[in-house]
Amino acid sequence: MNFYPKNLRGIVTAFLFSICICQQATAKENFNDEYFLRNLKQNNFSIDPSAVAVVLYEKSTVDISPDNGWVVSQKVHRIIKVIRKEGLDQADVLVATFHVNGSFAEIKKIAGTTYNLENGQMQQQQLNTDLVTAEKDYMFLTRKFSMPSVKEGSIIDYTYTIRHDFGLMYTDWTFQDGIPCLYSELETTIPVIFDTRSMTQGNLQFVELPNGPRKIADSLLPESFRYSEIVNGNEFKNSHWVRRNIPALEEEPFVASVNNYKEKIKLQITGTTKNSFSVNFLNTWPKLNKALYESFSFYRPLVLRHEDIGRVAKELTASLNDETEKAKAIYNYVRKNISAKENSGIWSTRDLNDVFVKHTGTPAEINLVMIAMMKAAGLNCDPVILSTRENGKIYDAFPALTGFNHTIGMLVVGSETYYLDASEKYNPFGTLPEQCYNGYARLVNQNGGSVNLLPEMNKNKGMVVVTTENADPQHYTLNFKQYFTKAEAAGLRAEWSADTTEIRKHLIKSLKVLSLNAALKTYEIQNLDNPESALTLNYTVSLSWPSGKSVYFTPVFMNRYSSNPFKANERIYPVEMDGVTDYSYSLQLKIPDGFTLEEMPKSSITTIDEKDEYKFMTQYDKETNTLRLNARLQMLRTDFQTEEYPVVRAFFDKILAANQQKIILK
């Protein structure tokens, strides 16, 4: 699934609530010609000598002031040194602010300069603001621009200001991203009548400086510190959060989203100490639920009468008595007949009947149509909003809408609850795409509530069964029956339905890894268009056995892991699997006539704990001259802490060692 927005390296994104990236040099720096000339001459920084670019300075200044009501203003100033060509993408800037119908937001005062060193002289080129492009969709107002004349060694310096209305006052400041940062600061000026709360992410621990950094030498300042003071006649509180010498954020496999580990601080207005002053803050889950429940772009259309939606829903369910069967009929109709286009987050941007009639919509619109049809059929189905795994986690303690980027359905039939996503063409009823299992989510209906979509709910079960059809060495034939996991099947169904010749290519490629001379004879695919049943590939393979000499080969013909997926010696983040694994391999290999078994793999059981194990069991039946091998990988845990990483890595080493054992035939 391609859920917008997605954080991209080298693209700066600032949401309405100030989702930004932070960088600087020193709190007492003067940004004059001497400063830029000095940094133009420096092409290596001790924080990371291999860095492709370094943020020299960044500051976000946020203040709240009365302007026909309270208005939030955020000014961002950023200076970046481009060191290598791989860092040139830092010149492409995207600024976005959350903006839905009925709210005020604007992006203005965009300015920038590129500095280059030419023949020892500093050259400057201003950003042509006529080339700034603007876009607006239902959720975001954006501005895009590219800094001019950027090359290796350039310094780019730009500023912009975001202004928005006050009801959703929420500032999210990210101190860490894909390039190192020398200095980053968030400054806020908020009226003292407002109460606030904050939450930090990553390893942030700010040292409180009661008197600020003014009288402290830079070399003595902590790497992270904060300070505050009351200003403007005791009416405003001015606060600073400063982080220095921040390493680049590193990527690792088996992490739901590195966004969850970025150093970040979130600030939110929770209320006012002045009883006579009233602002409708959307700062609790019940308030957010009420706003969505009453929104004509979300819940209200679900309970309105839609002629076509209602008519088809009743036609599909008229002959059915069982509620689950009714839901399946509606779900499969929507899944097959409405195609997904670009994402709009959680909202509907069009009339649902229009989506239904034209057979195309965003993922959220498709699922809202499905929910509307189920309600029209008398079923208990409501929307659930969530954040996909790659988008980052939602935190119960910090109510805000901006983190959500997808809408699904929750159906209740008696004591059973089903989570539904009809926007994925090959997603089966009652399960979700693996990206949706990301923890905390919100049910939206009259009362609202929380939902926990845990990765443990995502079951990845697959199996391979190999049997001998013909043991004559001249016509030796094996039969393979492969049952794909749900995640594997989703991608393969889309690929193979579009072009069935890809099935044969897939098989030919898989046979190349066999340690014997193999040729594909026949194959058939089952349940290609039916995601309710396991996608199954049934095929026969002929093997050529050499005569007059010993044969060495590995009997695990379909090895799920060709190498250890955990290659690094050390781990930064916890290991986060996208679901539980239950994968089996069964082999009944009749020894070819004229051959004898000289050596066979040894049985073994490898475990991490009582929930995670790999059984590799072999048995030889002399009477039938048959080798039996049964292997099963079960991983019922989805999260492993960093300190458990050596055990997880060793576990996969042992799996590979077991699977790579050889059979020797004479």
Automatic annotation (TrEMBL):
Any Pfam family: Transglut_core
Q: Where is the signal peptide?
A: 1-27
Gene3D superfamilies listed in its UniProt record:
2.60.120.1130, 2.60.40.3140, 3.10.620.30
Q: Which UniProt keywords apply?
A: Signal
InterPro entries listed in its UniProt record: Papain-like_cys_pep_sf, Transglutaminase-like
Residue ranges constituting the Transglutaminase-like domain according to the UniProt record: 312-390
Q: Does the keyword Metal-binding apply?
A: no
Q: What name does UniProt use for this protein? A: Transglutaminase-like domain-containing protein
The record lists the organism as Taibaiella soli
